[in-house]
Model the fold of this input.
Amino acid sequence: MKLKKAVSAVLALVMVTGMFAAAPVTTHALTFGNWEYEIYQGRYWLTGYTGSFLTSSVLIPDKIDGNKVEAITFNLGDDLPYLQTLGFYEDTAITEFPSLRDLSDFKEVYQVDANGRRLPEKNNILPDSITSIYEGTFSGTKLQRLDTNNVTVIGDSAFEDCDSLSSVTIGKATSIGNWAFEDCDSLSSVTIGKAAAIGNAAFAKIGSSCTVSYNGRASAWSYLDFEFSPNLVVNCTDGSLGWCGGASVEAMDYLYWSMNNSGDLTVRCVGDDIPEKQVITTHSWNKRAVKTLTLDGVYRIRENEFDNMDDDYVALKSVHVVSGIKQIGVSAFVSCTSLESVEISGALPDFEIKDYAFQNCILLKTVRLPASLTSIESQAFYNCRSLENVEFHPDTHGLSICIRAFSGCTSLKSIVFPAGLSALKEFAFYGCSALKDFYFEGTKAQWDSVNKDADWRFKVAADCREHWRCGVTFNNNGRGTAPAAQTGLWSNKDKVVS
Done:
């Protein structure tokens, strides 16, 4: 019996020994100077700091007992709440940068050589071995600049609320997480060396003027990536883009812009479609590079929004409004001296072109207007001396052409009014010296009912004729009889048609 017990004890000891031999070797409460560490599967990890909690600067040990330190597994802020600077040996083996979340005094990362001498040229450059910056790592710190060096992964909120951060160089990252730089109010320069995947709102709510240089195509970005960052420009290999206004945060309506390298600028509305909110409030595109402008869902173009009074829009040649427009504001495009064409194909009801909107657009040749247009206000096209073609939509109703609306359009030879014309105000075509024909899409009775001020034709050539559509009557055999005086179903006041 004693022999059996002895054998059993030996077997139990062997089994226990075997279990520990098979399991990872983990030793708790090991210390090295002011550091606590563990050994896991032969790897040395720092797990805590036992020095003064008032310490403001620490150097991460490179080795413990000749073994490389490979990881830091605790939030440094837990043991070092007043930490300001953090050092690494330049040949460190650590691959994941430790968490500094909410260390509000932290401002610098530095490196030292094998002898512990500081390397000033490597200030705020991460060591070569570090490849990951995980969620919230630098969030809430006072870091001012950083070169991520060999980092390939930047996690969610990694730099969120870094109010002092001004510049970041991201050379090798393949992914940048959601909200990574959100609310970095001082951020002015970001260089992304690879075509990294960009997370939602990665550069949202940046209040400062900021340029992001991205070595990839603009299609890799979503408007959500830079929402509510009106002074941020993302420069890509094929163009640039940014956010430019819209509704409140709660309404989730946005305007964002994109411009290719040829100067084609598009401003587009996305969101829940609250049209009165879709106003360009601010923007950061290169005004002097804009050659064509497309607006899709912009509710109102504000006063002087695209004017060229300061030689900003010197290259703008065409404007196309696709949808959603309610008003083109006062002097919105005044003195755009390179503008040649304007097309408004989609507009909301009661669309208006306000005073001086296109005044002094001296190369403007063609204007196409939508059916919902109700008002062309004072001097809207004043001195557009190259204007040759004004196309009103035939379904336009209730249209008023106001005082001096087309005054000084000296190349305009004829104009076709829609049958829904309501009013012609005084001096509407003042000084249009080339005008020879006014055409009206309605009948003579409708023409006579248009509210025309006495001086609506003032300073228009006396021989400029007024035409209206002739009525054609059909007999029982389907043959129509048109007055002999008409030409192409038009008549004029010099050849009265009954």
User: Anything to note?
Assistant: The radius of gyration is 36 Å. The longest strand covers residues 239-246. DSSP finds three helices and 38 strands in the chain. The mean pLDDT is 88.
